[in-house]
TrEMBL record:
Keyword Transmembrane annotated: no
PANTHER family: ACETYLTRANSFERASE, AMINOALKYLPHOSPHONATE N-ACETYLTRANSFERASE-RELATED-RELATED
InterPro entries named among the record's database cross-references: Acyl_CoA_acyltransferase, Bact_Acetyltransf, GNAT_dom
Protein name from the UniProt record: GNAT family N-acetyltransferase
Ranges of residues in domain N-acetyltransferase: 4-161, 174-318
Gene3D superfamilies reported for this sequence: 3.40.630.30
Keyword presence, Oxidoreductase: no
């Protein structure tokens, strides 16, 4: 099985790529919807510079690999994604594709590479046997809203002294936009590259959610005129049974007063009244964010899956 480089993929190649990614996804994540064709194509044709390889097999592809090369700087890591058809695994195909990607990383003078894996899938032993080390875990948690009731009522009544809650749907009210952007910057602790939140960016992000047909709910805690923290949930327009937790943050000087738990419990009560069709809420937490994990577990969220982020030094790759 030979590896070919795919340049400017034609429609047939995009279809073959999507078919292969879908087959691998169904095998490794049987409980999750596979990506839409537009998502796969977007990843292949989007703005960032990239190189693509495939292993032709039958009428389509037996395996594919993509390497994203963001920015021009050699200090930015290249991002590797490899998929091998479930029927063709453990024959060295993944390693061969990784070798192609490693050659391209060297040619581009990139010192490091990153890749993602779902815990419990073959991607973990594959990456760990081929030079990668895990640098970050993200836990996916889910809450059955029907089971959240009693705990939610208790925590929604915490009322830390000096604070009050406000809530809005969609774009933040103008009078709070600057304070809200400042609170968003408080998340920089746990999210790289998120320090550039401005009132404008906050508004645009909410507008994008509305444009997709989804509804954004925000609960915030105020102390006098200052916005001490907030929590956001998005209810998808086309599948409202499963809502998604977006950002939650408490500004550093307001931490340690149970504002996170209070705001999240108030959010759950608001959703129960406003959107009773929401039966599940999903959230992702960095594995090292012990405080947020504890808040979520207190509210009844249970572990769903764990994603791992891997990194390798290019010279350690095959
Ligand atoms: C991860 C994946 C790309 C591996 O492809 P592959 O062609 O099976 O990999 P290789 O045959 O080159 O395996 C190389 C080594 O990885 C390890 N490995 C791979 N799959 C493994 C498994 N299921 N269990 C244990 N070790 C495994 C072994 O050490 C193997 O060497 P060995 O067969 O000599 O023991 C493939 O399973 C896949 O497509 N997974 C879904 C997509 C994905 O999660 N990609 C993320 C990684 S970028």
């Amino acid at each position: 099985m030979d590896v070919i480089e795919v340049r400017d993929p034609a429609d047939g190649e995009l279809d073959a790529w999507h078919a292969l990614v879908s087959a691998a996804h169904l095998h490794d994540h049987p409980d999750e919807a596979p990506p839409e064709p537009a998502q796969t194509v977007g990843l292949l044709l989007g703005g960032v510079r990239r190189r693509l390889w495939a292993v032709p097999h039958g009428d389509g592809f037996g395996a594919v690999a993509g390497l994203r090369l963001p920015g021009e700087a050699a200090e930015r890591a290249g991002e590797i994604e490899i998929h091998v058809h479930p029927g063709l695994r453990r024959r060295g195909v993944g390693t061969r594709l990784l070798r192609s990607a490693a050659g391209a990383l060297r040619a581009d003078l990139r010192a490091t590479a990153i890749a993602q894996a779902l815990a419990g899938t073959p991607a973990v032993p594959f990456l760990e046997s081929r030079g990668f080390g895990c640098v970050l875990t993200t836990r996916g948690l889910v809450l059955d809203t029907a089971e959240a009731g009693p705990a939610t009522a208790v925590f929604a009544a915490l009322n830390p002294p000096g604070y009050r809650l406000i809530r809005w749907t969609g774009v933040v009210p103008d009078r709070l936009a600057a304070a809200f952007a400042r609170a968003k910057r408080a998340m920089a602790d746990h999210e790289e590259g998120e320090s550039a939140w401005t009132p404008q960016r906050v508004r645009e992000t909410a507008e994008q959610v509305a444009k997709r047909g989804d509804e954004l709910y925000t609960v915030a805690a105020l102390r006098g005129p200052s916005l001490a923290g907030f929590t956001e949930i998005v209810v998808p327009g086309d599948a409202p049974a499963c809502a998604f937790q977006y950002d939650t943050a408490v500004v550093p000087e307001h931490r340690g007063r149970r504002l996170g738990l209070w705001m999240k419990a108030a959010m759950l009560r608001w959703l129960a009244e406003e959107r009773p069709e929401v039966v599940e809420i999903e959230t992702d937490n960095a594995g090292d964010n012990a405080h947020m994990l504890a808040v979520n577990e207190t509210l009844g969220f249970r572990p769903l899956r764990e994603y791992r982020e891997y990194q390798a030094v290019t010279r350690d790759l095959p």
